[in-house]
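R.M. (postdoc): so does anyone remember the format we settled on? I'll just put the structure tokens first.
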């Protein structure tokens, strides 16, 4: 069967360190990269080419350096280079950026690239001074554990509000009892992320409360755009797409 050109793409960015100019270790030694493999597998299953042969590409960013490294913003440079390469490979297709921790910071910063339509950030690193104007016109859903000790859920909530005022459509989802590495309640992280990414791509459906949050006006309070994963699951029912653990 002849495949049509890709209809969309997902670019996955794993976590890293605040500082570190050495390259990430190879293969299984790169633990932040390994942690994103279940997400990549789940997305590839969920976006497998249908009978008409259309395809959603799922690609991963390869970092030259394992750290952000201050004003160098190395992960951002790698994300932008990967987006340019993706455009050369697939053409002018809509792209959703999926990032964890430092990778979520890079995704948020790279969202001004013309291919990007939305960002899903997992346990994102959101320093208070980071810009948000590049998020205007994009869908941004950030997912954070209330028990994260590496990155701040409060900073994530603040960024969703600032980005909304700058013209983005934003939502935050809290995973109660999770952790920064997304090991606790791992199936919930994987399934929720797949639902969000496919929903933003238009190949699946977003939970209605997420759609409502994305439609909030710029003046909405930060808490109005903050949802609870377990309440989402309860509203969708036991047969829904959001597991409890």
């Amino acid at each position: 069967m002849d495949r049509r050109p890709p209809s969309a793409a997902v670019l996955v960015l794993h976590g890293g360190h605040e500082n570190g100019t050495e390259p990430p270790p190879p293969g299984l030694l790169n633990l932040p990269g390994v942690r994103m493999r279940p997400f990549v597998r789940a997305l590839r299953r969920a976006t497998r080419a249908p009978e008409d042969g259309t395809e959603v590409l799922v690609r991963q960013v390869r970092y030259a350096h394992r750290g952000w490294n201050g004003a160098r913003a190395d992960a951002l440079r790698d994300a932008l280079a990967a987006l340019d390469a993706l455009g050369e490979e697939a053409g002018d297709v809509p792209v959703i950026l999926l990032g964890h921790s430092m990778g979520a910071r890079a995704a948020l910063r790279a969202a001004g690239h013309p291919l990007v339509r939305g960002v899903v950030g997992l346990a994102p690193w959101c320093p208070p001074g980071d810009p948000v104007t590049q998020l205007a016109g994009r869908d941004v859903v950030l997912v954070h554990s209330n028990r994260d000790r590496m990155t701040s859920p409060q900073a994530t909530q603040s960024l969703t509000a600032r980005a909304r005022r700058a013209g983005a459509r934003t939502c935050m989802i809290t995973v109660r009892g999770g952790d920064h590495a997304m090991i606790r309640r791992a199936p919930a992280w994987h399934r929720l992320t797949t639902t969000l990414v496919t929903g933003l791509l238009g190949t699946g459906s977003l939970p209605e409360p997420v759609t409502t949050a994305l439609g909030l006006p710029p003046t909405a309070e930060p808490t109005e755009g903050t949802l609870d994963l377990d309440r989402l699951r309860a509203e969708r029912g036991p047969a829904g797409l959001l597991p409890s653990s």
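R.M.: ...and that's the designed sequence above, right after the tokens. Also worth knowing: The CA atoms of residues 178 and 220 lie 27 Å apart. The two ends are 39 Å apart (CA to CA).
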